[in-house]
């Protein structure tokens, strides 16, 4: 990516948006290109502001953050736009739905300022980001929910090669390309190529959706 990361902030609380805007604009590698107070406005601004990353609240009027994320993810013209969902502990029941809608990750609102900036950079680079605190509960919800592996690709992980299934399992455990390469004795470039091919085969928008399909299909089990 050349130039600063273009960030769109979507939150119905003016003070929250203003605080995030000051933080983002304080980073020389980022710039705020728009602010939205509703989900519908977020979708409209996503189309006009050409943001790289949308920091999206879940609870907003007119259109909630989940539905707004779904509309952004479904728009071919916004294929490169990443959505980072902000939530609170009392909205964990929406996290899985947000990821299925196309979010690249989620964070809790009490995140430290430096960690929010790091999260924006991570998502802009195409990586999935799951806040450590609610992740265990997210996985528990995935396992308790009806399995829907067909939602990503025609055959889910069954259509992957043995090596690709190994790579997918490591992605779902939170490993980056370099760590995957070290674990499997591959070059980082080869690991990256495997991840890209897996995303293509499963029709996944990004690594966050790979995490979902890996758990829903039973490819990996938490704690094992």
């Amino acid at each position: 990516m050349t130039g600063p990361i273009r960030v769109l902030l979507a939150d119905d609380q003016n003070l929250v948006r203003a605080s995030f805007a000051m933080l983002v604009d304080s980073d020389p590698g980022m710039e705020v290109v728009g602010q939205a107070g509703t989900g519908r406005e977020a979708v409209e601004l996503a189309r006009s502001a050409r943001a790289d990353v949308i920091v999206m609240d879940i609870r907003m009027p007119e259109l909630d953050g989940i539905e707004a994320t779904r509309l952004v993810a479904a728009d071919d013209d916004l294929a490169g736009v990443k959505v980072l969902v902000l939530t609170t502990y009392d909205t964990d029941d929406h996290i899985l739905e947000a990821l299925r809608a196309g979010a690249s990750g989620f964070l809790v609102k009490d995140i430290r300022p430096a960690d929010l900036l790091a999260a924006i950079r991570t998502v802009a680079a195409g990586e999935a980001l799951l806040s450590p605190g609610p992740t265990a509960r997210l996985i528990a919800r995935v396992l308790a929910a009806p399995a829907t592996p067909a939602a990503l690709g025609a055959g889910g992980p069954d259509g992957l090669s043995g090596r690709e299934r190994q790579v997918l399992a490591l992605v779902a455990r939170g490993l980056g390309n370099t760590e995957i390469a070290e674990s499997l004795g591959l070059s980082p470039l080869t690991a990256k190529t495997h991840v890209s091919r897996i995303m293509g085969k499963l029709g996944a928008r990004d690594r966050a959706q790979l995490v979902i399909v890996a758990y829903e299909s039973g490819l990996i089990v938490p704690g094992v």
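The chain has two domains: 5-142, 147-216. The first strand starts at residue 5 and ends at 10.
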